[in-house]
Design goal:
Elements lengths: L4 H14 L9 E8 L2 E5 L8 E5 L4 E7 L4 E6 L10 E8 L1 E4 L7 E2 L16 E4 L22 H6 L9 E4 L5 H10 L6 E10 L1 H13 L6 E7 L4 H19 L4 E7 L1 H14 L13 H9 L13 E9 L8 H9 L2 E5 L1 H5 L12 E2 L8 H7 L2 H16 L6 H16 L10 H12 L11 H15 L1 H10 L4 H17 L4
Parallel strand pairs: 8-12, 10-14, 10-15, 11-12, 11-13, 13-14
Antiparallel strand pairs: 1-2, 1-6, 2-5, 3-4, 3-6, 4-5, 7-9, 15-16
Length: 503
């Protein structure tokens, strides 16, 4: 093997010409005190708020407090590895998370590290956890429906792409079930989902992941997990990490759905950090800026203008109440930020009405704009009918004599309540919901005994799917119920009514 001296000389010469001396400078500080997930650091005089810093053992932290003589840092990892006198390096960068297609189908922590044992994530780019929400000019009105597959939600409190709809209720009332159903219903669609578990038990998170896998929903879902056993700083940044992952897809013109489960636990983690940092406490011992903590997160949900690609990010934050106390500090804060709320009531849940949605308190401020024309036509009066039924039901229970028209209204109300019940992990297609609600509201199920309404509905949908597939396909494609289609539907329902036999 011969060496060409001229070639080697020319390569070396080119390397010398292209050489640029680069001096990398890092500001270095010292840990003054450490404990409970926070550290006080001396010497980082040029540190920025929200900047990422690195401790001696490779553990990362985020600048949280800027004080006169020191900097308060929240530790995003095992703080037991850090001791007084350790070196802290500033990075000059904001806290970021890897984003991109590589995360889909994975379970990660809020820093982007895999938790599912499927090996490292080869993400092509990263994105800061905190970014400014798009302004008014960068948005467009919410008018495209995001189907959840839950009859009671899609008919009465519809969710649109780019909307923020709060799911609120006591513990064990089915809040996560509503959110998971919404994810499962996106199967075969164009929506990428991000499920953020914040402060949940590890067993609960594992249960949700298994349910998503069983339904084939992990193919388009990212799970960001910060369990109850994780340190408070990790729980605090989890929702922002989920928002950053979804934002990446939104700015590519895609549609995303983010579930924050739940923000009341994130608020508790934030309160813990703030009190440890000696920030002054306010109402219920929360710091004064806890509203800003949630508003800057939820404002990032938007339907972008066509100039920016028309992507959307829909947020379903979850808040847990205590003893149905909707007027507590955190619930009222988040209600005022969001575009409506779905209130789940324990009494309804234990009475077997599931999903246990209280029609009176639940509201969508986008309303009919977030519904297809067919659903709007069918479900227009449903909310008022149910609210009227709830009032009349109280009279009926008192044993008051009711006239024939009122009795008929009460009987139909009982059937509508049965009709709106839905098992978990069985979301319904929009066309099936229209057929089902039309049959109930127009009185085609009035002759069915209340106990058999669910079975009758099941048979009706099967009858339409098997024997009138052409009508169903047309309903799916047109998304509207014009006079011709309504006449066809009436004929179909009359045919089913004659065929159906009570058990």
């Amino acid at each position: 093997m011969k060496f060409n001296a001229d070639e080697i000389a020319s390569v070396i010469q080119r390397e010398i010409q292209d050489f640029r001396g680069q001096i990398q400078t890092n500001e270095v500080g010292t840990v003054v005190e450490v404990g409970d997930g926070i550290a006080r650091v001396y010497g980082l005089t040029n540190a920025m708020s929200g900047e990422m810093v690195e401790f001696a053992g490779g553990v990362r932290g985020q600048v949280f407090n800027l004080e006169e003589n020191s900097v308060g840092v929240i530790i995003l990892g095992d703080y037991l590895k850090i001791s007084e006198g350790d070196e802290v390096r500033s990075t000059g960068q904001l806290l970021s998370i890897p984003v991109g297609e590589a995360l889909i189908g994975r379970v990660v922590d809020p820093l982007g590290n895999p938790l599912d044992g499927k090996g490292p994530i080869m993400a092509q780019s990263s994105r800061p956890l905190e970014t400014t929400a798009p302004g008014v000019a960068a948005r467009q009105p919410v008018k495209q429906p995001l189907q959840t597959g839950i009859k009671a939600v899609d008919a009465m409190t519809p969710v649109g792409r780019g909307q923020r709809q709060l799911i609120i209720g006591d513990r064990k009332t089915g809040k996560t079930a509503v959110a998971v159903d919404a994810i499962i219903n996106q199967k075969g669609g164009d929506v990428i989902c991000v499920y953020v578990a914040c402060g949940q038990r590890s067993s609960s998170i594992a249960g949700v992941v298994e349910a998503l896998k069983a339904a084939g929903a992990m193919d388009y879902t990212v799970v960001v997990a910060a369990g109850a056993s994780d340190p408070a700083p990790v729980q605090y940044i989890a929702p922002y990490a989920g928002a950053a992952i979804a934002e990446y897809f939104m700015y590519q013109g895609k549609h995303t759905l983010v579930i924050y489960d739940d923000l009341s636990k994130q608020a508790v983690a934030y309160r813990q950090l703030s009190l440890l940092m000696r920030r002054p406490p306010g109402r219920e011992a929360y710091p004064g800026d806890v509203f800003y903590c949630h508003s800057r997160l939820l404002e990032r949900a938007a339907k972008l203008s066509d100039e920016l690609g028309g992507g959307s990010m829909t947020a379903l934050p979850i808040i847990e109440t205590l003893e149905g106390e909707v007027s507590a500090y955190i619930p009222t804060n988040v209600i005022s930020i969001t575009d409506g709320q779905i209130y789940l009531e324990p009494d309804l849940f234990f009475a077997g009405v599931r999903p246990a949605i209280n029609v009176g308190i639940s509201v969508s401020r986008v309303g009919g704009n977030a519904q297809t024309k067919g659903m709007k036509k069918v479900a227009g009066s449903l909310r008022l009918d149910l609210a009227a039924f709830r009032e009349l039901e109280a009279f009926a229970q008192l044993g008051t004599e009711l006239d024939a028209a009122t009795q008929k209204q009460v009987d139909r109300g009982y059937r509508m309540v049965e009709l709106l019940k839905q098992p978990q992990y069985v979301p319904l297609a929009a066309a099936d919901q229209i057929v089902s609600i039309y049959a109930g509201t127009r009185g085609y199920l009035d002759a069915v005994p209340v106990s058999q309404v669910a079975e009758a509905e099941k048979q009706l949908l099967e009858y339409v799917r098997l024997e009138h597939a052409e009508f169903r396909e047309k309903l799916i494609s047109s998304k509207t119920l014009d006079d011709t289609q309504e006449a066809t539907l009436k004929t179909i329902l009359e045919g089913f009514k004659k065929r159906w036999q009570p058990k």
